[in-house]
């Protein structure tokens, strides 16, 4: 158990007051404070690191702040957009000029004047998310943002709107889905839900733009750049796409460390949770389905990926599959879950398939990671254990055993002093059981 790490550090919570990191509330990410701790404890002070599930880019920007180059791989368009906007600002040599342009746009309030409007490209799941007035003002704002002369400022202004979509909507990100306020007119389960005060669009967007502007002016703490002079900051590179496709194409023995937090095996569907943001970015219904299937299998809707041999090649596929097949505890758990499925005890028949595919694909990711890491390079992962039909799945122990079969040694597993609870359904049927939340540290042999 590691008392230095708590749930705040391994979540977005510790980023809420960090300049630059706080702009978009990406709850599934870890904090810059955790990354600084990880780099210090694993001795990573220079070189090139990789995050194959880059999320909002916290590992990348924290590394660059410390003078370490960083590559990231990210499939979800929302997260890729966050990274690209932050990188645009991170690399900007005149942040005061950017702040001035944002301030000029705020002062104009041009979106409140009559003019052309942008029709929000709703998905089925997002229809009715805004009041009529809010949606009109959002459309006006996006049109006015696109009229700004500087393309970089256009991108930042549109990003600010992306950051406030949930705040100005009738929705709230709640676990595995969007929860709907009763004021939307949509049904939301058995109990009525009121998310509280919903700000006017102008109020929300002005507050967000002012926050970004103030962070830009306060350069000494933007992305913690006080740690190293601008000339010595690390370089950041983003690969957009699936790590199962991109990792095998990267040069072997390239990276000095890998730090990441993959999706958990917990049925969490990012395409539903971030449906508003995906819609604004122009991701349509067909693309949503393709995106969900391409992502690491972590939802009950994921099917087997039929193109793994083409993505990874025969050698990597063989190594990863062998390590997966040799994990005896996992296969006992899968037998149990299949039996529960046959007896109709699961609340979704897709759970055994999801668990099987999750660990298979993670085995392939670990195999591909072993190829690109240098000898003695640390592989650090944040992940949660899960529970289905009463059985505790020790993700940390299973993945560590698989990693050891693929060329790693387990250096340590930092267990948080306080784990997480179970769903009310699990506790009602099988009793309360605290599940470990861990940070694993492996070393490439």
Helix content: 40-55%
- Output the radius of gyration: 22 Å
Query: Main β-sheet, in a few words?
Result: 7 strands, mixed
Strand order of the largest sheet: 5-2-1-6-7-11-10
> Structural class from helices and strands?
alpha/beta
Number of helices: 17
User: Which oligomeric state applies?
Assistant: single chain
Number of strands: 11
Distance between the termini: 25 Å
Question: Would you kindly provide a written description of the structure presented here, covering whatever features stand out?
Answer:
The structure is a single chain. With 445 residues, the protein is α/β, with parallel strands linked by helices. The chain is built from 17 helices and 11 strands. It is 44% helix and 13% strand. Helix 5 packs antiparallel against helix 6 (151-168), helix 6 packs across helix 7 (201-217) and helix 13 crosses helix 15.
Give the secondary structure arrangement, pairings included.
Blueprint: H1 32-42, E1 48-51, H2 58-65, E2 69-74, H3 77-91, H4 95-108, H5 132-146, H6 151-168, E3 171-174, E4 177-180, H7 201-217, E5 236-240, H8 243-246, E6 257-260, H9 270-273, H10 275-280, H11 285-294, H12 308-312, H13 314-325, H14 328-342, H15 351-372, E7 378-384, E8 386-388, E9 391-393, H16 395-405, E10 408-415, H17 424-430, E11 437-444
Parallel strand pairs: 1-2, 1-6, 2-5, 6-7
Antiparallel strand pairs: 3-4, 7-11, 8-9, 10-11
Helix pairs in contact: 1-2, 3-6, 4-7, 5-6, 6-7, 13-15, 14-15
Summarize the entry for a quick read.
It is built from 17 helices and 11 strands. It has 445 residues and is an alpha/beta fold.
């Amino acid at each position: 158990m590691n008392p230095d790490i708590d749930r705040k550090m391994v979540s977005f919570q510790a980023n809420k007051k960090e300049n630059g990191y706080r702009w978009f509330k990406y709850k599934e990410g870890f904090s810059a404070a955790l990354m600084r701790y990880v780099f210090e404890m694993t001795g990573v002070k220079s070189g090139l690191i990789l995050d194959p599930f880059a999320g909002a880019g916290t590992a990348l920007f924290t590394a660059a702040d410390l003078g370490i180059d960083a590559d990231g791989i990210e499939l979800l368009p929302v997260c890729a957009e966050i990274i690209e906007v932050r990188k645009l600002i991170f690399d900007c040599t005149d942040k005061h000029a950017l702040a001035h342009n944002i301030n000029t746009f705020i002062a104009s309030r041009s979106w409140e004047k009559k003019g052309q409007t942008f029709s929000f490209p709703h998905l089925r799941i997002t229809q009715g998310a805004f009041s009529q007035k809010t949606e009109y003002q959002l459309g006006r704002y996006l049109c006015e943002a696109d009229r700004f002369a500087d393309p970089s400022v256009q991108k930042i202004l549109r990003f600010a709107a992306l950051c406030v979509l949930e705040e100005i909507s009738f929705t709230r990100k709640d676990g595995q889905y969007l929860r709907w306020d009763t004021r939307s007119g949509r049904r939301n389960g058995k109990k009525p839900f009121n998310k509280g005060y919903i700000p006017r669009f102008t109020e929300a967007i002005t507050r967000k733009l002012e926050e970004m502007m103030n962070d830009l002016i306060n350069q000494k703490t933007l992305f913690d750049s006080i740690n190293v002079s601008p000339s010595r900051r690390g370089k950041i590179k983003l690969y957009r796409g699936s790590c199962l496709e991109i990792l095998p194409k990267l040069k072997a023995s390239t990276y000095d460390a890998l730090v990441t937090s993959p999706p958990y095996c917990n049925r969490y569907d990012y395409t539903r949770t971030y449906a508003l943001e995906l819609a604004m970015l122009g991701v349509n219904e067909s693309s949503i389905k393709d995106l969900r299937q391409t992502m690491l299998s972590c939802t009950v809707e994921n099917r087997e990926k039929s193109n793994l041999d083409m993505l990874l090649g025969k050698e990597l596929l063989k190594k990863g599959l062998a390590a997966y097949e040799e994990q005896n505890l996992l296969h006992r758990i899968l037998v149990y879950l299949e039996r529960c499925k046959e007896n109709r005890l699961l609340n979704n028949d897709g759970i055994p398939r999801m668990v099987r595919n999750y660990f298979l694909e993670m085995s392939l990711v670990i195999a591909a990671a072993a190829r690109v890491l240098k000898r003695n390079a640390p592989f650090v992962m944040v992940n949660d254990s899960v529970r289905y039909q009463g059985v505790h799945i020790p993700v940390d122990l299973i993945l560590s055993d698989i990693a050891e079969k693929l060329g790693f040694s387990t250096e340590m597993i930092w267990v948080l002093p306080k784990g997480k609870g179970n769903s009310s359904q699990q506790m009602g049927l099988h009793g309360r059981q605290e599940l470990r939340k861990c940070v694993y540290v492996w070393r490439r042999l």
